Amino acid sequence: MEKIELEEKVVELLKTVYDPEIPVNVYDLGLIYRIELSDDLTRLDVDMTMTAPSCPMADFIVEDVRLKLENIEGLSSVNVNLVFEPEWTQDMMTEEAKLELGML
């Protein structure tokens, strides 16, 4: 798989992960800060955040992201880092997410 195809697959899978309390996926919510593939395309690092540092579903969501990404053929390691810098704001959401949540 080429790098661009692999990155598209990562985004596609991230769009299947939801916070049970919000009807929008983590990617469109703007919770994914960094997606980085190693040069040999076997290692994936993802930095993500939560809408609030005290999110009670954080462990569940991070584990869901990790498990889904680990299913990508060819990856030998997936590292999901939970970060809180920069702090998440509603401005990070896609237009689709804002529309879904009635913010437009």
Overall structural domain count: 1
Element order: H for helix, E for strand:
HEEHEH
Helix content, binned percent? 25-40%
Going across the major beta sheet, what is the strand order? 1-2-3
Quickly give the structural class: alpha+beta
DSSP helical segment count: 3
How far apart lie the N and C ends? Answer: 38 Å
Number of strands: 3
Superfamily (CATH H level) name: Fe-S cluster assembly (FSCA)
Indicate the CATH architecture: 2-Layer Sandwich
Query: Which CATH class applies here?
Result: Alpha Beta
Mean pLDDT: 96
Query: Which residues sit in consecutive blocks of at least 5 with pLDDT less than 50?
Result: none
CATH third-level topology:
GMP Synthetase, Chain A, domain 3
Radius of gyration, Cα only, in angstroms?
14 Å
Shape: globular
Question: What characterizes the major β-sheet?
Answer: 3 strands, mixed
Percentage of residues in strands: 15-25%
Can you put this structure into words, describing what you see?
- The chain has a single domain (3-83), classed as Fe-S cluster assembly (FSCA) (GMP Synthetase, Chain A, domain 3, 2-Layer Sandwich), CATH 3.30.300.130.
- The chain is globular.
- It starts with a helix and ends with a helix.
- It is α+β, with helices and mostly antiparallel strands and 104 residues long.
- The protein has 3 helices and 3 strands, in the order H-E-E-H-E-H.
- It has helices at residues 3-14, 58-70, 95-100, and strands at residues 32-37, 43-48, 77-82.
